[in-house]
């Protein structure tokens, strides 16, 4: 399995620091790593420390050759992430507000979107504000029937600042994004599925099983090719980047990988490929 370093990593953590989280639970299930945001008393709201810990945990998982898929979820039954911790920025001025959004996007949301390891968000309850933005920057989203999603920021006199206005419109279209942002309302899981905001909806007790089912299917395939696919798909949404040209470049690079040799050899030999030996 091939892993690529991520140039957007903003922090350097020692291994000891990566193993010590106040707000996260880390569980390794074979080649699947489950990262659980563990602030149930605060409905798993994102504060500065949690954002930094998530960056460190995601960075570590992305560099871990034993991890092929990351599942991100929230502790408890009520909430995936019920937004940002408002008390941390309630008294910010214009400059501080802009810096908050910029640092948050670079540290976590854009960082996750560009990881070479696929991230599945298992949305187990409220995914509001920064919580929905966290789910949207993940590569795949699975929701329980109890999930409720929305961007309520305008009810606080602000707008989504962690990429929500951009990614929501990309996923559901401009009209529905306008409606959700302008009304500050929540939608249920079945409506989110109808609009393409999530990939699947299941009963709460089946949520992690469904996420792991998708993860297992991903693990059957080439990690290096998936990383190339992530870069190619993301290029379509990057300003000033020709996604077709990125696809051509990434396609060509695949021919120089061990996975290409294994995949084509397995096909010609009529056997299943072993990409993760």
Describe the structure.
The chain has helices at residues 15-18, 48-63, 94-113, 130-137, 164-172, 174-183, 189-194, 207-219, 223-235, 243-254, 258-268, and strands at 24-29, 32-37, 69-74, 79-81, 119-123, 126-128, 140-144, 148-150, 186-188, 200-202. A hairpin with a 2-residue loop joins strand 1 and strand 2 (32-37). Helix 5 crosses helix 6. The longest helix has 20 residues, at 94-113. It has 11 helices and 10 strands. With 277 residues, it is of the alpha/beta class. It has 2 domains: 15-219, 2-enoyl-CoA Hydratase, Chain A, domain 1, CATH 3.90.226; 223-268. It has a 6-stranded mixed beta sheet with strand order 1-2-3-5-7-10, sandwiched between helices.
SSE inventory with pairings:
Layout: H1 15-18, E1 24-29, E2 32-37, H2 48-63, E3 69-74, E4 79-81, H3 94-113, E5 119-123, E6 126-128, H4 130-137, E7 140-144, E8 148-150, H5 164-172, H6 174-183, E9 186-188, H7 189-194, E10 200-202, H8 207-219, H9 223-235, H10 243-254, H11 258-268
Parallel strand pairs: 2-3, 3-5, 4-6, 5-7, 6-8, 7-10
Antiparallel strand pairs: 1-2, 8-9
Helix pairs in contact: 2-3, 4-5, 5-6, 9-10
Quick one: overall form? globular
Helix content: 40-55%
Highest CATH level, the class of the largest domain: Alpha Beta
User: What share of the residues does DSSP label as strand, in percent?
Assistant: 15-25%
Question: What CATH architecture label of the largest domain applies?
Answer: Alpha-Beta Complex
Helices, by number, come to: 11
Going by CATH, the homologous superfamily of the largest domain would be 2-enoyl-CoA Hydratase, Chain A, domain 1
Determine Rg (CA atoms, Å): 19 Å
Q: What is the structural class?
A: alpha/beta
Euclidean distance between termini CA atoms: 7 Å
Major sheet characteristics = 6 strands, mixed
> Which regions contain 5 or more consecutive residues with pLDDT less than 50?
4-18
Sheet with the most strands: spatial strand order: 1-2-3-5-7-10
Kindly give the count of domains.
Answer: 2
CATH topology-level name of the largest domain? 2-enoyl-CoA Hydratase, Chain A, domain 1
Mean pLDDT: 93
Give the strand tally: 10
Order of helices and strands: HEEHEEHEEHEEHHEHEHHHH
């Amino acid at each position: 399995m091939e892993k690529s370093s991520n140039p957007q990593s903003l922090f350097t953590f020692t291994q000891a620091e990566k193993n010590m989280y106040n707000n996260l639970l880390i569980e390794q299930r074979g080649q699947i790593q489950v990262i659980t945001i563990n602030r149930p008393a605060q409905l798993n709201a994102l504060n500065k420390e949690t954002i930094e810990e998530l960056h460190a945990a995601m960075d570590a998982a992305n560099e871990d050759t034993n991890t092929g898929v990351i599942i991100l979820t929230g502790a408890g039954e009520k909430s995936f992430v019920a937004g940002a911790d408002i008390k941390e920025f309630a008294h910010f001025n214009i400059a501080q507000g802009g810096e908050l959004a910029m640092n948050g996007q670079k540290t976590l949301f854009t960082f996750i979107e560009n990881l070479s390891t696929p991230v599945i968000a298992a949305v187990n309850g409220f995914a509001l504000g920064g919580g929905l933005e966290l789910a949207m920057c993940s590569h795949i989203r699975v929701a329980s029937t109890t999930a409720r999603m929305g961007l309520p920021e305008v009810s606080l006199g602000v707008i989504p600042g962690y990429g929500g206005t951009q990614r929501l419109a990309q996923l559901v279209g401009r009209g529905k994004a306008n409606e959700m942002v302008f009304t500050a309302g929540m939608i249920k899981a079945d409506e989110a599925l109808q609009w393409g905001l999530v990939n699947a909806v299941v009963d709460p007790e089946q949520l992690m099983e469904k996420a792991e089912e998708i993860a297992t299917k991903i693990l059957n395939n080439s990690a290096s090719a998936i990383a190339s696919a992530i870069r190619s798909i993301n290029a379509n949404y990057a300003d000033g980047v020709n996604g077709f040209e990125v696809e051509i470049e990434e396609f060509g690079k695949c021919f120089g990988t061990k996975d290409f040799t294994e995949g084509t050899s397995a096909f010609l030999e009529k056997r299943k490929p072993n990409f993760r030996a």
